[in-house]
């Protein structure tokens, strides 16, 4: 008997494929993760709930909505989008104060609670009718600072009553130099719109009329042009004798004013609906480091799947192709000389 | 997340299309073709046939398990009914300015604790002891405000309690606050006991119209009512009737008349009068005990990740296939494509 010719024992590629698939599946079982650094934010969100926020000149997905509803929707989206690990405190603004509802809550685990509270914000929570925005921003900055958070103040910028013309905007400890973090968010339309009016039981009864709101701030010294006004009397009528007329019963987004406020306080400005709120927060609020662990198991799982498909589909098909090709020039076992 | 059958769900349903490749092993086998011309001459061997099919099925299992795992197989959130301790509590908290004074009615100095600080500390401990409860917070002063909706996210509830010692507002409109707290409990249709815990250091006259509305609302479903009255030094208290020469009406003694009103609602009602932090602690412990009744409640279980299980199944199936592959008997000398060497 002829000695058996030496054939190098080659490893079957199919075995290799199966081994690779097994190795990848075992790797997936070990739950690999990839940790990346993401930016999280600690925010104190203050929402203006004064009556001017009930003006329906904002929009949600193209449909008209009140400024408050648009603000609620924008903030809910923001909270859904910022990185897990971020914390949000919520306050409402009315009169001249930011009234804190809750201290910072982690946004992912606390999402249902935060979104639920946002959804129930209502002008009826307001404790007074005034809307002294600049004082409110000053108070809100204090609240946000006490919680070591950055401010997101959502408002239409409508001061009621109007500011004293003789006093420039001023903030305790901030002449624009003090670098504060956070932003003012403007909401509302550019054109003047009527402000809904509510009766004592909270039912809407038309719109505010010119005589319903103070049109002019008559505290402090009269303006320099007062002498030219009708009925001016230095002692008895220093502001003139006429009833002040104006547009204070109508409201629009006071964008220039809010941008001024931002400059004085060192806060950024973004407009709801025009600017991407999450992007604005990333730009103006401090980015705190947080780890986000990405689950790599699907990657390993799919790679194992691909290896298996190679074994089950590609390898057998390749074998079939090779055999077909050889059919033209058959090289049978016999023709090559039977082994052994 | 897309729901599959039986409460199962996947995160990336798009990957499920790969399941179409899963039956491949039934048709094609990764076995090395053998140089042996034909098996037709061999007798039927049922054990071998069964083994052959087992290995094919293992292939299908491995492929399917890998796809399901990569797609993020999980059991979706579900609610189950349990019996245990727990209830739905609406905390109705006074945020008027006087809450920031001490029990002696002064502005706190040095290490002194204000009423709101004492309430904050003790309510926080109360919530921490009750992990199964659903709790909501309504703040009230000039107007009632929803602070935290009814939720099982107790971290948010504790964040709401943490804010109660912030500067308060002017008035104590307890009537509308009660209406909002009741409204907050109205949403749940579960079987848990429902309670309102009113924490305040004062009361005000409740408008007759509001009283009527409250009576009607309370008549609908039973609610346990607790009033924790933080009594400042010198105030007359909620139980004592006035001396005979003094008038006895809501304008003069709003606290006493709120107590009478709450008692007249026909609900289980307890009032606690606390003159100091220890008395507050006792009262809260008492409420904790009263709210300890066994109830049936629904618990929402979070998603359970099944991807790990699916990977384990895939590993098991693959191990079986590889074992079979390594036991392959080589008949004749053939290369990997079945050519004779």
TrEMBL record, chain A:
Gene3D superfamilies: von Willebrand factor, type A domain. The keyword Membrane applies. Signal peptide: none annotated. It comes from the Bacteria. Residues 40-218 form the VWFA domain. Keywords: Membrane, Transmembrane, Transmembrane helix. SMART domains: VWA (SM00327). This is VWA domain-containing protein. Residues 210-232 are annotated as: Disordered. The chain crosses the membrane at residues 299-322. InterPro entries: VWF_A (IPR002035), vWFA_dom_sf (IPR036465).
TrEMBL record, chain B:
Residues 88-287 form the VWFA domain. Pfam families: VWA_2. Gene3D superfamilies: von Willebrand factor, type A domain. PROSITE patterns: VWFA. The chain crosses the membrane at residues 54-75, 306-327. Signal peptide: none annotated. Keywords: Membrane, Transmembrane, Transmembrane helix. This is VWA domain-containing protein. CDD domains: vWFA.
């Amino acid at each position: 008997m002829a000695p058996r010719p030496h054939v190098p024992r080659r490893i079957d590629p199919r075995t290799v494929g199966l081994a690779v698939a097994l190795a990848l599946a075992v790797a997936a079982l070990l739950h690999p993760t990839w940790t990346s650094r993401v930016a999280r934010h600690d925010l104190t969100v203050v929402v203006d709930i004064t009556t001017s926020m009930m003006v329906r000149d904002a929009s949600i997905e193209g449909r008209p909505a009140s400024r408050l509803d648009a603000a609620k929707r924008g903030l809910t989206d923001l909270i859904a989008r910022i990185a897990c690990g971020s914390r949000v405190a919520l306050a409402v603004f009315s009169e001249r104060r930011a009234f804190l509802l809750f201290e910072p809550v982690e946004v992912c685990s606390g999402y249902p609670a935060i979104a639920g509270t946002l959804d129930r914000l209502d002008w009826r929570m307001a404790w007074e009718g005034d809307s002294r925005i600049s004082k409110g921003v000053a108070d809100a900055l204090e609240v946000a600072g006490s919680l070591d958070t950055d401010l997101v103040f959502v408002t239409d910028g409508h001061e009621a009553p109007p500011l004293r013309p003789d006093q420039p905007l001023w903030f305790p400890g901030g002449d624009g130099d003090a670098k504060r973090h956070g932003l003012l968010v403007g909401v509302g339309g550019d054109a003047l719109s009527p402000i809904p009016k509510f009766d004592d039981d909270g039912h809407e009864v038309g719109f505010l009329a010119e005589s319903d709101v103070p049109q002019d701030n008559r505290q402090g010294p009269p303006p320099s042009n007062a002498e030219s006004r009708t009925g001016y009397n230095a002692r008895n009528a220093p502001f003139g004798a006429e009833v002040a007329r104006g547009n204070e019963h109508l409201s629009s987004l006071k964008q220039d004013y809010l941008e001024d406020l931002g400059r004085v306080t060192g806060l950024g400005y973004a407009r709801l609906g025009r600017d991407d709120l999450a992007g604005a927060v990333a730009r103006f609020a401090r980015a705190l480091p947080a780890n986000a662990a990405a689950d790599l198991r699907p990657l390993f799982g799919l790679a194992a799947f691909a290896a298996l498909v190679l074994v089950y589909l590609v390898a057998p098909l390749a074998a079939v192709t090779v055999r077909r090709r050889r059919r033209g020039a058959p090289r049978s076992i016999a023709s090559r000389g039977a082994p052994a | 997340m897309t729901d599959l059958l039986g409460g199962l769900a996947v995160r990336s349903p798009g990957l499920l299309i790969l399941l179409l490749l899963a039956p491949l092993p039934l048709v094609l086998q990764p076995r090395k073709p053998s140089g042996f011309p034909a098996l037709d001459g061999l007798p039927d061997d049922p054990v071998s046939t069964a083994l052959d099919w087992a290995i094919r099925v293992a292939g299908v299992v491995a492929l399917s398990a890998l796809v399901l795992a990569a797609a993020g197989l999980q059991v979706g959130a579900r609610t189950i009914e349990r019996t245990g301790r727990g209830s739905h509590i609406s905390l109705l908290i006074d945020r008027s300015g006087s809450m920031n004074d001490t029990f002696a009615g002064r502005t706190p100095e040095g290490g002194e604790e204000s009423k709101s600080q004492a309430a904050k500390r003790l309510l926080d401990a109360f919530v921490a002891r009750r992990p199964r409860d659903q709790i909501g917070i309504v703040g009230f002063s000039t107007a009632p405000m929803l602070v935290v909706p009814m939720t099982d996210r107790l971290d948010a509830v504790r964040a709401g309690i943490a804010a109660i010692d912030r500067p308060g507002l002017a008035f104590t409109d307890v009537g509308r606050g009660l209406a909002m707290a009741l409204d907050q409990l109205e949403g749940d249709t579960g079987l848990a006991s429902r309670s309102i815990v009113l924490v305040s250091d004062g009361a005000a006259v409740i408008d007759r119209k509001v009283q009527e509305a409250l009576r009607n609302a309370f008549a609908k479903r039973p609610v346990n009512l607790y009033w924790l009255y933080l009594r400042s030094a010198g105030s007359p208290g909620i139980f004592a009737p006035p001396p005979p020469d003094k008038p006895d009406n809501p304008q003069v003694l709003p606290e006493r008349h709120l107590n009478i009103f709450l008692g007249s609602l026909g609900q289980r009602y307890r009032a606690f009068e606390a003159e100091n932090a220890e008395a507050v602690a006792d009262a809260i412990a008492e409420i904790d005990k009263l709210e300890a009744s066994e109830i049936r409640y629904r618990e929402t279980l979070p998603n359970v990740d099944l991807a790990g299980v699916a990977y384990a199944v895939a590993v098991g199936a693959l191990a079986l296939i590889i074992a079979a592959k390594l036991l392959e008997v080589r008949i004749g000398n053939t290369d990997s494509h079945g050519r004779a060497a």
